[in-house]
Design a protein that fits this description.
By secondary structure, the protein is mainly beta. The chain has 2 domains: about 180 residues, 3 Solenoid (Pectate Lyase C-like), CATH 2.160.20; about 80 residues, Elongation Factor Tu (Ef-tu), domain 3. Helices cover about 0% and strands about 40% of the residues. It contains no helices and 25 strands. Strands 1-10-13-16-19-22-25 form a 7-stranded parallel sheet, with no helix packed on it. A hairpin with a 5-residue loop joins strand 7 and strand 8. The mean pLDDT is about 90.
């Protein structure tokens, strides 16, 4: 699809006569959803050098020359478990060097972020030109809007902010629900982002051959890349990043979740994915 560079925001607001379960976007069988935001590649990379506390400069392994001033990024913790001491940090891009490998942010980092030879903190881009968000008061109940796709869904360069409904099955930021055979390359989510999700992030349920590539998820409750039934086959998860994901305990009708990635089937490809600050994934 044609990728839209101009900023567009869709805010989902509850109204009389609209049940909470219907708030958001629902694509019925036979329907099609196309959302194509501007390409900002790569969507995430890793540090090439340690960022000391008090610095506002980060050095990266890959060029991010498409990232723009004012966009939000996050740098993941480099300590063992971020639920105990959150050292993930969000900052705004101030400038990007000509080669794209040095980024100056708008404020100094409060913590050091490691970028040595053994491992390196990840750096992900949160901002997108297309923004789907819940109304500002949704945080009081953790019940936001959600996207449920039962037909075809092609998403690129879309940010979901404060979406999903806490511990409500089927109400997630991006959810392919009993869509059947998505057809490799026909339905996908590419270089999208989920930020401050109330419940999970990218959920695949009863759907085969879906592509999830180059996506980032940050500050979310429940598993972020989730294959629900274990019968889903042929799904391709590649180069996705999940970070700062919060344990929800035992959700309704599910099993205990503690990680960025929760899968129940063997027929799944997920090369080059990454999870930061996770006890297990």
């Amino acid at each position: 699809g044609c990728r839209v560079a101009a900023p567009i925001t869709l805010t989902f607001q509850p109204s009389a006569g609209v049940p909470e379960s219907d708030l958001g976007i629902q694509v019925l069988q036979g329907g099609q959803l196309d959302l194509h935001g501007a390409p900002y590649k790569p969507t995430w990379t890793r540090l090439s050098a340690t960022v000391p506390r008090g610095s506002n400069i980060i050095y990266l392994q890959d060029s991010v020359s498409s990232w723009q001033p004012g966009q939000l990024l996050f740098v993941t913790t480099s300590i063992y478990r971020d639920e105990y001491e959150n050292q993930n940090e969000v900052a705004a891009v101030q400038s990007v060097s000509s080669d794209g490998r040095t980024v100056v942010v708008d404020s100094p980092f409060q913590y050091s972020h490691y970028g040595g030879s053994e491992y390196q903190s990840e750096v992900g881009l949160l901002s997108r030109s297309l923004l789907l968000r819940s109304w500002p008061g949704s945080g009081t109940t953790s019940r936001g809007a959600h996207v449920r796709i039962m037909g075809q869904g092609r998403l690129e360069g879309v940010l979901s902010y404060q979406m999903g409904q806490r511990n409500v099955l089927g109400a997630y930021p991006f959810h392919w629900h009993n869509a059947g055979d998505a057809g490799r390359g026909v339905s996908y989510a590419k270089d999208c982002a989920v930020f401050a999700s109330y419940y999970r992030c990218f959920v695949v349920h009863g759907t085969q051959n879906l592509q999830l590539t180059d996506n980032v998820a940050f500050h979310a409750t429940g598993s972020c890349f989730y294959l629900e039934d274990g019968v889903e086959e042929g799904n391709w998860l590649q180069h996705n990043l999940g970070a700062f994901v919060h344990v929800i305990g035992r959700p309704a009708g599910g099993v205990t979740q503690s990680g960025e990635v929760f899968v129940q089937g063997p027929d799944l490809a997920h090369p080059a994915d990454a999870a930061a600050g996770v006890f297990y994934a």
